[in-house]
Amino acid sequence: MRAMVSTDMKQMNRKIVFDIARERREITRVELSELTGMSGPSIMAIVNEFVAKGILRMGEKKNGSVGRSPVMMSFNPDVMLSVGVEFEGNNLQVGLVNLDGEIRFQTTAKIPSNLGGDFFSILCGSIEKIEMMLKKENLDYMGIGLGIPGAVNPDARVVNFAPYVGVMEPRDISGQLDSLEKRFGKPVFIENDVNACAVGEYYVRRINQDTQDMMYISIGSCIGSGIILNGELRHGSRNMCGEIGYSLQDMTGIVSRQKTGWLEEHISHGALCERFADYRISSRVSDEMIGYVVNLLCPFISNLVNTLDIPHIVVGGQLILNGGERLVTAIRDAVQSTTLSDVTLQGCHTEYTGVIGSALMASNKLWDTIL
């Protein structure tokens, strides 16, 4: 094991201060010293460095203090911007996102529902539009995050399978990603799209430090979940964690990488449009449809909550956006009545959770570039 050297410790201390400032939004040097246990001179050195880099902004003196009033500092979420990419069906959303999960610019395009050459060509065009907007504002960005609707190995840059985009066998897309990096001069990261959404919701909601577990469930063209345990996204040893769409009601179901799962076949967008005419025609979510979704979905959510002891659940995707608070409330009531402990269940923070999550995923991998 490599011994920790002085530079490692300094970088770790910077990260600690960075995370506290990011969470607190406003803070003083004294508060940073109390929260971190670092000496005043050490905090002073880090703060001066962060102010010079634009991570912290000096504000007004804090009122109500005895003696010399400490100066309040605010965290600058625009110090790191990344591009997030989300696609579902034939819709491509590309946006520029800051560390607060705010979308600064966004563009929309129609794409083929696959990972072929046309897809990457249209993606490049969308990123170029974002870069044009950046130049007008004299801004730059750090990286690109791409959420993919399938089982993904982020490190190997392989899509193991993704039936909705025509990937039935493992596909290495490192060549296409290398081309993106060469074209734009920025690092590119891939992740399962729902995992990316989970990351976005986790950071935007600033989950409390003493309960760092959260599960995000998306219901749209596909169904999936992203699980965060102890503040870390759970991938599993085979990058299969969160594939809730393959859940079975009984032993009559079939599980195959060549097709969608049992639960997904019953409450995905296509299945709901086929079953409920009002939803197909006008996206209206009826009481009957809410009952149907709750009856099928909630047992699986409750089973995961009871198994993993997860206190925070966020539901998102097109179905939740269409159903609104009525649907969220019905899901919440059903889950809370079938779990052993209290559960907080809320709807997604924004319509573009995938864009935000993919961008924040990229930013979180690049934090050391600004420290």
Describe this structure in words.
With 371 residues, the chain is α/β, with parallel strands linked by helices. 43% of the residues lie in helices and 21% in strands. It contains twelve helices and 16 strands. It has helices spanning 6-24, 29-36, 40-53, 117-137, 174-184, 193-205, 262-267, 269-275, 277-282, 287-308, 318-336, 353-365; strands at residues 26-27, 56-61, 71-75, 82-88, 91-97, 103-110, 144-148, 151-153, 158-161, 171-172, 188-192, 214-219, 223-229, 232-233, 312-316, 344-347. Strands 6-5-4-7-11 form a five-stranded mixed sheet. Strands 14-13-12-15-16 form a five-stranded mixed sheet, sandwiched between helices. A hairpin with a 2-residue loop joins strand 4 (82-88) and strand 5. The longest helix has 22 residues, at 287-308. The two termini are 25 Å apart.
What is the fold's blueprint, element by element?
Layout: H1 6-24, E1 26-27, H2 29-36, H3 40-53, E2 56-61, E3 71-75, E4 82-88, E5 91-97, E6 103-110, H4 117-137, E7 144-148, E8 151-153, E9 158-161, E10 171-172, H5 174-184, E11 188-192, H6 193-205, E12 214-219, E13 223-229, E14 232-233, H7 262-267, H8 269-275, H9 277-282, H10 287-308, E15 312-316, H11 318-336, E16 344-347, H12 353-365
Parallel strand pairs: 4-7, 7-11, 12-15, 15-16
Antiparallel strand pairs: 1-3, 2-3, 4-5, 5-6, 8-9, 9-10, 12-13, 13-14
